[in-house]
Amino acid sequence: MTTTVVSVVTSRSQYARVKTALQALTEDDRVDFYLIVSGGALVHRFGDLSDIISEAGMEIDKKIHTLLEAGEPVAQAKTTGMGLVEYATAFEELDPDMMLTSGDRHETIASSLAASYLNIPVVHLEGGEITGSIDDKVRHATTKMADYHFVSTKRSKEIVSQLGEPADRIYRTGCPSIELAEQVVQEERTEYDPQTEYGGVGDTVDVSQDYIVIQYHPLPTEYKSNYDKTQELITAYEQLDIQAFWFWPNMDAGTDQVSKAIREYREQQDADGVRFFISLDPHDYLTLVKNAACMLGNSSVGIRECSYFGTPAVNIGERQQSREQGPNVLDVDCDADKIAEGVRSQLQHGSYPQSMIYGNGNAAQKITDTIVELDPELKPPMTPDLVGYQEKIDQ
Amino acid sequence: MTTTVVSVVTSRSQYARVKTALQALTEDDRVDFYLIVSGGALVHRFGDLSDIISEAGMEIDKKIHTLLEAGEPVAQAKTTGMGLVEYATAFEELDPDMMLTSGDRHETIASSLAASYLNIPVVHLEGGEITGSIDDKVRHATTKMADYHFVSTKRSKEIVSQLGEPADRIYRTGCPSIELAEQVVQEERTEYDPQTEYGGVGDTVDVSQDYIVIQYHPLPTEYKSNYDKTQELITAYEQLDIQAFWFWPNMDAGTDQVSKAIREYREQQDADGVRFFISLDPHDYLTLVKNAACMLGNSSVGIRECSYFGTPAVNIGERQQSREQGPNVLDVDCDADKIAEGVRSQLQHGSYPQSMIYGNGNAAQKITDTIVELDPELKPPMTPDLVGYQEKIDQ
Amino acid sequence: MTTTVVSVVTSRSQYARVKTALQALTEDDRVDFYLIVSGGALVHRFGDLSDIISEAGMEIDKKIHTLLEAGEPVAQAKTTGMGLVEYATAFEELDPDMMLTSGDRHETIASSLAASYLNIPVVHLEGGEITGSIDDKVRHATTKMADYHFVSTKRSKEIVSQLGEPADRIYRTGCPSIELAEQVVQEERTEYDPQTEYGGVGDTVDVSQDYIVIQYHPLPTEYKSNYDKTQELITAYEQLDIQAFWFWPNMDAGTDQVSKAIREYREQQDADGVRFFISLDPHDYLTLVKNAACMLGNSSVGIRECSYFGTPAVNIGERQQSREQGPNVLDVDCDADKIAEGVRSQLQHGSYPQSMIYGNGNAAQKITDTIVELDPELKPPMTPDLVGYQEKIDQ
Amino acid sequence: MTTTVVSVVTSRSQYARVKTALQALTEDDRVDFYLIVSGGALVHRFGDLSDIISEAGMEIDKKIHTLLEAGEPVAQAKTTGMGLVEYATAFEELDPDMMLTSGDRHETIASSLAASYLNIPVVHLEGGEITGSIDDKVRHATTKMADYHFVSTKRSKEIVSQLGEPADRIYRTGCPSIELAEQVVQEERTEYDPQTEYGGVGDTVDVSQDYIVIQYHPLPTEYKSNYDKTQELITAYEQLDIQAFWFWPNMDAGTDQVSKAIREYREQQDADGVRFFISLDPHDYLTLVKNAACMLGNSSVGIRECSYFGTPAVNIGERQQSREQGPNVLDVDCDADKIAEGVRSQLQHGSYPQSMIYGNGNAAQKITDTIVELDPELKPPMTPDLVGYQEKIDQ
């Protein structure tokens, strides 16, 4: 008896985080695994993942285009609506025993809702994390719809429980991205140059010298000031004297503002010392980050994977403000001087010791084993005692 | 300075519950109120509300058809997806200060998501209620996306808080449906016959004699057995010797099974003593219920409005199992004998004293006043302490 | 080398017309045939075809729910839009050599457009027919998008050519529905009673005596008067003294008005002598029609299949006004007296000789053979000479 | 009594072509004009038209985002489907007397279908034109759905008639784009430099010297070779010794291939002498074209507006192969040498005399006057004689 599992990949960052789990599910004989690729993961501008996924040995069962030209909140809402419409058709056809989803992005809720309507149990990875950004709304809403929770940290486990989820449905598997990080550590590629294989545009970076990795995403709730914020970051970088690999932002609302600032920087100010990429294979990306002198921006990678690598990270602004951090992270406001000062301080400090706060590198196997052992069914409705309600009813 | 509010009505039951609040918002000079009618509320089979709403003095600003032919979960998912796509367009055009939504049905989450993506603060009525049905998943997920909570009961207020919502964003306004109930009480229409005005089909009920009101909705998670369950209810009714007004079910998954059983009962077994209706104006419906000897089925009206009327209610099965109840409710399993016995026992008991568990009848004004006084903004991201997390981070 | 063909079935009437072709394609080893069932063909109210298709030996490859609660033009437009969105996904996944579509209904254009965008050659059955109804707009628009035309009649072939389509892309295959008619003729079931197998509601018809078959569809362009028109038909029937099988209308805009009139007739006027059905298997339906004393209404069956059977037909109003007719058809205005008079006259005349105007009963094989022999490719752009344009360009 | 007209603008090229008509409708007191902006016209990458339209004195009544991330046929199909869904809602709300659409692009058919379903008469501009590209499929299909035809040329008028449209519903108004061209001619801006106002990227062009304008769009049916074709064009340009303004392609399937080739040319080969733009205001764009030494590519502007200006044009490949041409056009295959030779020959020839093949510059007023005088109603169904069918029916 095999267990049938379906999962939807909608962006490169989400893919990077769950890749090892998807591979483990693909390879395990006890599991029939269906992979749907959708949204930004099919779009060149944000890094079409089709080839990358195939090269990683996974078959793509369905491609479902849903991404409206983004950069505006209304387009994100519609992308989610399109996803809901079409994932429903796909899930009904595939008729899986469970649907595995991850994280906090808006596409997440489309697959969770579609599965919920179809009475397919939802397994949610990375619930209970608190970053302090608007994405958390979606994450916690997904927790309330999910039937099983595979969490990364001790804090997350406790928070999911406090949100009224039954304890016997919460598993601490660790984050599958840490498993990928562990693979990267074991390979010991201490000097890796992505420019040969991936191209990119801009100056050539000498990877035998110190470099930093920059990844700055828009903040959807304040999307009109994303242009200004990106310029603070550019001004900060101009004050520093170090090479950089700079990655284009994800497709959240505001992405056009961030991209515009970067594009002007490249075209009108030369962007000395910077190499720009759309995306790398997650494995290569993490190798680049592991070897970096510092990670700069507001990506969760600075906090999550870098804690495992010990790579110093400068975390800008509010996007990750409440996320659990290891010792490697320095938080700064989105101000050019403070950003530059933060990077200088981290470069001086150098590498940090490894932290296992997000897992110890065997999440994929844990996830697969747990899935196989589950006899998946919808969770019972929440009862008052699950959120600690005990008083007598007043009348 | 007026406050601009938008709300979406998608079904007759939802409309009945919020009608007084919508009217108060329409009439209040401090508020610009936009009403969108959508989904099942535009469909004849489930009671097209267009005329009813106009007659109640409210203008319909937009009609948005979203309802796929229902009776199957996949159609519900798609209806929600269509709603998300089109509400996003509508909300962007109307550009309101806040979006008011209510309850727990699947359409709710489409408007909540659309507003969330567009950074429009969401006000959620009736959060924190626990019924024990699958609808609660959607209700609690909506709570995690909403920015303000206007709850009905003390228990609900505490539960919303336990789910990690800031205390200063939770208002106990009571349920606007109780205000409608209070209006009905004040009118003192002790004998009301809907057959003249609305027609209906089946036998003629003599409203000067005892009658019961039956309303039985499908259970989406087990939608294949809804036919059998409805037959239990029919068998139970056949054992009783009392007239009945029977209302067709809502459009949840499984509605075709319930309808089929009722239709066969009508067409092949005569359904002696029963008058069938699709829907009445909420006001007339509640008058009918207030005067009834007993309310039978699994509608929340038996628990909510009937507690205020003191009308005895027999509540079948799990759909409302964890909902807060006043003394007027008798819970029974979905078994013909037990249902019949329950009705007999309630008929013998007769009317109960009024309970104010769901509010004291002034919710609409409280809601309007609170909205006017709000300076609406998105809630801050949830922090760990809001769900009572206090331990130090482990590493 | 097999040819891969996909087709979408969206209603019972469309299915009835192409059934033999779909079966021939399913059974032919030279063809990989994919069948998508969608729209009204999945909805109970209009006759869910899933079981009927499976029993006919065909596998359903995809079910795609698209039907919005109909009865309003806006819902039809949205149903078509939903179809376009999802058929595009399905066609991309199946990657067929061609897409086979039929007829004139609005769903047709969704599949034709989806295929056109994806550069999949479109084969259109039943192009060039002129009925005189608004459906023709869609039919002729589809002709302009189709790459191959499999037509039924000589007139159709000439009209498709006049519309600027290349002669070598127009094949006169005959209509596959006539093949089904031929099968029915060969079976010689001269007395067939659908009431045992299908139930239905209303009076019992004695099939050893004369009966008529009534099928009246709404006219979308004037959908507000469909209620009145249906009442003319009812009044006409009341003047006659013959039993009838009456079929509910299709899901075109206006269906609610037609249904309402029929429902009231049934519930308030008893409808003496009438048995009502939602739908039968096409085979059984045609047997019933073949044995009927007269076919009454505005269905194309009265003109198309009845010409082959020689069953007298009374064709009401404009819906089929320009369709090619055999000698068996009497056209009448939608007026109660004229309808009744027409039926009386046809009953007196009795059966007509067989006409082969719509084909000689081997269309399915011709269609399949033609498909196998095609090396399908997109048609070249239309040139001025194809529509007979010869003058010199003026400047 | 005013006439209510709605129109949907979905791309910059379509806007350019109808701008004067939209302005005339806006300004005319006899018309209530509603403008919907949608699709590519709302997307930065293809030139967001919101500001441009507002600056031209027109109010945007609705913005409807529909554009899926393009470059793939499946995304175009879905964009059309989304449009159909949402235009239906918008048209029902606005309830216009007619819907005005133009041209041949895929978005056209979404608005035509939505209006057809809602029984709103469709007025189609630019029907009957034959370009020889796949776009014609959509144009001729739209002709078969449209109720009125406002055509540009004598040939178009005859072709629309041959396609079976009633002669009294075909008006030769001329193309509104020629009116814009006439305005540009009258202004006598013989030296216009867009670089000051619009920026653009690449080298600076000296507009006091000869320059050419390049605009090359993808061919959807062969979208995989668009990259190679664009490289032929680049190689051709490299052989020439003249400055160029190069405009990015439209959003048709294949746009990513064209863009990729251009981007590589810019980033890796320097693109000496070329200034790249996304888009200009139509007025400014035509001024630039009028002053150009040659127009190069496959845009209809080279044939349509340039015939009126007398600007020499080199038309590459099949995209416009059957379009009516004035004497200013030289057709060449998509081969680097032939393109270069064509441009050299046109540069040597210099300016051509004005041709009025596409109208004489007063189309906008003619269109508006015709609309006001119409008493718009749906066209009658096509009858056999309209396509010249006269034979007796064979049986």
Automatic annotation (TrEMBL), chains A, B, C, D:
GO terms for molecular function: hydrolase activity, hydrolyzing O-glycosyl compounds. InterPro entries: UDP-GlcNAc_Epase, UDP_GlcNAc_Epimerase_2_dom, WecB-like. GO terms for biological process: UDP-N-acetylglucosamine metabolic process. It comes from the Archaea. Its EC number is 3.2.1.183. It holds the Pfam family Epimerase_2. Residues 24-371 form the UDP-N-acetylglucosamine 2-epimerase domain. Keywords: Glycosidase, Hydrolase. This is UDP-N-acetylglucosamine 2-epimerase (Hydrolyzing). It comes from Halorubrum salinarum. The gene is neuC.
